[in-house]
Amino acid sequence: MRPLVIYNHRMNYINKFQNQLLNWYRQKARELPWRSDPSPYKVWISEAMLQQTRVETVIPYFNRFVDEIPSVESLAEVEDERLFKLWQGLGYYRRATYLKKAAQAIVKEYNGHLPVSINELKSLPGIGAYTAGAIASIAFNIPVPAVDGNVLRVMARVNADQGNIRNPEVKKRIEELVITLIPTNNAGDFNQALMDLGAGICLPNGTPKCNECPVKEFCKAYSKGLVSTIPVKSDKKERKMLEKTILTVWWNGRMAIRKRESKGLLANLWELPNYEGFLSKEQCVLILEQLGFTVTDITTMKNARHIFTHIEWVMKGYSISVEGEGNLSDWKWVTDEEIRGIYSIPTAFQAFFPSS
Ligand code: SF4
Q1: For 154, what's the count of Cα atoms within 13 Å in the CB-facing half-sphere?
Q2: pTM, whole model, 2 decimals?
């Protein structure tokens, strides 16, 4: 008789947790453009954009993207230049490259429809466990977890888990906890409710709004007074600093840009000519003379910095006017309008654009 009592108690706990969270979500869900029509394609695009990027930033990008590239087929065929232009400012451009590669695979292997199976989703370029879980649960209502940073924080607190959430074992433990709680018939809303709870109520850095939390009565961190110490996170590796000199080179009212290499950071995007280290005016003039130009003017620009995940660029820049043809095949001379409308130049260089 006793196991049945325990089982009933556990089921009551699970049902109550689900109901309270889902009732709250029905009233408080954020209105987001991909939620009004959660097609697999839109859920996928939104999740790719939301990696490492805030919701408010993503919304206008998402709207523009799905207006212009409304389907898997159109994504598979889009020109790289146009794709990167639509992505410009979102950062982590590799996500855009993966989206196109995955779209091509979906057209080839799945007749243009995103696969329903979580393993097939995970086999596509750029789709990891979280994104696969989000697509499967939100678009197909399959009861699988979608554990991002917000959900990790919420569930670590609910379970008073004091493990380091950067540790894969802890993440797995939390995924298993979500699996026990997720309803079989409303997985998409349940996962999105957890995401919204993390984004709006169970906030990081010791400031959660526990009094407004729909699952407060289940939260062990709250009942044990551990909210400010959970989640536990090991320190991230320190970012490497890289000094660079950026050249805004003008010739005949046009600015020089060049294509980055096809591998590594910001692969295949356009950039302003730049060199490692902090160069003096004289060194820059010498470089340009060696490239076949005559420098007619050079002025120092404001310093800038840009933070990537593992690296930080500290940049000094010069605005330089040149004459002469130069002997470069990989430089392209473009107008201001062309930069704004056609070429995608990463935000890292924008402090050195004429309008900045
Ligand atoms: S009670 Fe507080 S700490 Fe616990 S889940 Fe809710 S907001 Fe987070």
Answers
A1: 28
A2: 0.78
